[in-house]
């Protein structure tokens, strides 16, 4: 056990274990009326401001952020593992542009660095993105303990209680009821989301669905057989049947949609130290499962058979590589929507496959001695995953369910062709899908589904992509199984991004509680302002410190006349923009009023969506400390960007404003957003 866990108490409740962390200084106590009411445990009901389902990295960050906002949170974990993939073997972080990692995610990696260096963490500490699993565990334990977050283990979701469009509680299989005003689904599978009746999909969309180019079936060259390998039980004889794991169906055209998902595996922590644990031969081991690999080696392939990326301490994060490796291709199709018992069985199948693979490589006498000796030099790290014999407890669920909501992240977002204006964090990793099936092409075995296409840079993830569609569920946020196409999810699905989105989800949840509105109606400008205060990066390159954005849906907006909401033309800030309908000229007016934290010189910028039907002579009054300055803007051009209205002196507070008028305008007038930036002296 880590030192953090020794500061906790374990309480067993039926089949569940509650880990209660001590409350850190400056945080509200877990007491009656503040959220988790410990005396209420005997009654079978636990209440918190935020109920998080899933103790993944995202779940932990969501709970910690809630506590930092002065509220209570509880984590309900269906299994016994805490930290998800981050503590489950994925110690060589898939980060993309690491400088785009902000907020609590960045703090986690700074804490990892500080732990390795034996120094206190500071806001200026470097991030360390490679680490041993037990170190990640210690850092998460520390965060949970500091913030007094209770974690219920082995508490599997049984039913969801709803009233109208809201979740009122989730009941676990031991009869425990968890209630609260807000819920976060932080599981890799999207189980709470599905149980709440939220729309989702599984599989690969056709390219035509969202105007993409690398979704659906993809027969490509990476992680592919580079030497000819016969797929039949009796070489050259199709009538003898196919070797295990090969699909008998024809290969559809590239870009065709289907219900297949990318392969899963375990991220092993290996070492060559003298105390390593030799690879075990699993029960149910069948050498026939590796006949394809044997033939590939006999055809001349010499490796590598798995990756050996160093994470420190003489250990690795070992992953799939090449044509035949640790990915159990085609064995996971049923997993996303399976029952818990079925998932346990599928996980055991994956464990048997991968342990059998390592045993085969290290021991099968049909393999060259050089191959066997090279693999046998490695073994499981004896001081990692001690409860499971050195084998990682977390299956790498690379994708399962994906929500379908008002905004679907697609390849176009990843490539920067479109940019969500309601950004709640950045993603930047390659569009990465592992293989989805093994097929026969021209009498030879081939892998299908692998895609590895880079992105031009960090890109924003939409707030609408983590909230369900309107009226489906008003108090649930989904930062892991978010709304994204298969190929866009391949870029977003990285542990740092899950943590980023989870922090944003928790912040949005508490804003929704404060405002008494559904999560779909959270003031995005206020959310973004709070996220920036908490170190979240929302745009790339990062925006200037101290910016104030007033969106048309912000509290600081007043209207005269009739304004019509629209999303017809892209490039707007927040969930929509408004226009005057090209009527009510001189009557329709809309004023943006910021709350400026300090007086002084502020640059003012205006945003709109452009179209030929817009007005080319829109009067805009900037009310500042020296009076009123009127600027005319042409809304037929320069859409989807911030356009300067000049720099002015403003007092602190709400005395300044920007007024959009419609007097004498010659087309539709748009009101979208205003930005105030502290001017550089």
TrEMBL record:
Domain Golvesin/Xly CBD-like: 548-676
InterPro entries in UniProt: CBD-like_Golvesin-Xly (IPR033803), FAD/NAD-bd_sf (IPR036188), HdrA-like (IPR039650), TAT_signal (IPR006311)
Organism: Micromonospora matsumotoense
UniProt entry keywords in alphabetical sequence: 4Fe-4S, Iron, Iron-sulfur, Metal-binding, Oxidoreductase
Pfam families on file: FAD_oxidored, Golvesin_C
Coiled-coil intervals: none
Entry protein name: FAD dependent oxidoreductase
Listed GO MF terms: 4 iron, 4 sulfur cluster binding; metal ion binding; oxidoreductase activity
This protein's record includes keyword GTP-binding: no
Top-level taxon of the source organism: Bacteria
């Amino acid at each position: 056990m880590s030192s953090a866990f020794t500061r906790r108490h374990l309480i067993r409740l039926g089949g569940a274990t509650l880990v209660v962390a001590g409350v850190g200084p400056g945080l509200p106590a877990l007491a009656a009326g503040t959220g988790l009411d410990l005396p209420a445990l005997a009654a079978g009901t636990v209440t918190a401001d935020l109920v998080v389902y899933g103790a993944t990295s995202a779940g932990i960050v969501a709970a910690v952020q809630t506590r930092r906002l002065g509220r209570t949170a509880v984590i309900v974990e269906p299994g016994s593992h805490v930290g998800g993939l981050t503590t489950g073997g994925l110690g060589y972080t898939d980060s993309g542009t690491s400088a785009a990692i902000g907020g609590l995610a960045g703090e986690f990696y700074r804490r990892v660095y500080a732990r390795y260096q034996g120094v206190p963490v500071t806001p200026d500490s470097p991030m360390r993105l490679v680490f041993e699993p037990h170190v990640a565990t210690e850092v998460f334990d520390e965060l949970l303990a500091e913030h007094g977050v209770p974690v219920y283990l082995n508490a599997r979701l049984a039913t969801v209680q709803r009233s109208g469009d809201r979740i009122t509680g989730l009941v676990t299989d031991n009869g425990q009821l968890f209630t609260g005003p807000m819920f976060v689904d932080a599981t890799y599978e999207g189980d709470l989301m599905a149980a709440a009746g939220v729309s989702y999909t599984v599989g690969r969309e056709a390219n035509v669905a969202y105007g993409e180019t690398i979704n659906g079936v993809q027969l490509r060259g990476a992680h592919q057989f580079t030497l000819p390998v016969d797929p039949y039980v009796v070489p050259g004889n199709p009538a003898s049947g196919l070797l295990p794991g090969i699909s008998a169906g024809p290969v559809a055209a590239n870009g065709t949609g289907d219900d297949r998902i990318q392969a899963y595996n375990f991220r092993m922590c290996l070492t060559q130290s003298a105390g390593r644990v030799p690879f075990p031969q699993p029960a149910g081991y069948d050498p026939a499962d590796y006949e394809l690999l044997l033939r590939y080696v006999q055809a001349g392939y010499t490796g590598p058979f798995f990756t050996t990326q160093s994470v420190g301490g003489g250990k690795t994060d070992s992953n799939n590589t090449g044509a035949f490796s640790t990915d159990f291709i085609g064995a996971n199709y049923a997993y996303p929507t399976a029952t818990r018992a079925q998932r346990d069985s599928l996980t055991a199948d994956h464990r048997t496959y991968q342990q059998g693979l390592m045993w085969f490589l290290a021991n099968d006498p049909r393999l060259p001695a050089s191959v066997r000796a090279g693999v046998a030099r490695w073994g499981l790290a004896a001081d990692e995953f001690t409860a499971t014999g050195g084998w990682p407890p977390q299956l790498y669920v690379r994708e399962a369910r994906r929500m379908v909501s008002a905004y679907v992240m697609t390849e176009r977002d990843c490539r920067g062709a479109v940019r969500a204006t309601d950004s709640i964090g950045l993603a930047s990793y390659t569009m990465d899908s592992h293989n989805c099936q093994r097929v026969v092409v021209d009498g030879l075995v081939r892998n299908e589904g692998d895609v590895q296409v880079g992105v031009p840079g960090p890109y924003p993830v939409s707030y609408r992509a983590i909230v369900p569609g309107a009226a489906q569920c008003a108090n649930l946020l989904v930062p892991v199984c978010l709304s994204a196409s298969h190929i866009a999810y391949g870029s977003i699905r990285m542990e740092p991004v899950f943590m980023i989105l989870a922090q944003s989800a928790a912040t949005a949840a508490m804003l929704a509680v404060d405002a008494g509105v559904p999560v779909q109606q959270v003031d995005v400008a206020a959310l973004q302002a709070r996220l920036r205060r908490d170190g979240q990066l929302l745009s790339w390159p990062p925006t200037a410190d101290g910016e104030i954005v007033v969106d048309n849906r912000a509290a600081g907006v007043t209207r005269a006349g009739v304004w019509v909401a629209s999303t017809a033309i892209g490039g707007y800030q927040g969930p929509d923009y408004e226009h005057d309908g090209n009527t009510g000229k001189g009557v329709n007016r809309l004023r943006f009023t910021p709350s400026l934290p300090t007086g002084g010189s502020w640059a003012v910028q205006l945003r709109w969506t452009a179209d030929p039907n817009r007005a080319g002579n829109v009067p805009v009054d900037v009310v500042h400390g020296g009076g009123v300055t009127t600027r005319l803007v042409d809304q037929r051009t320069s859409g989807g960007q911030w356009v300067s209205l000049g720099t002015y002196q403003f007092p602190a507070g709400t005395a300044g404003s920007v007024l959009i008028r419609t007097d004498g305008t010659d087309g539709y007038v748009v009101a979208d957003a205003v930005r105030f930036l502290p001017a550089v002296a």
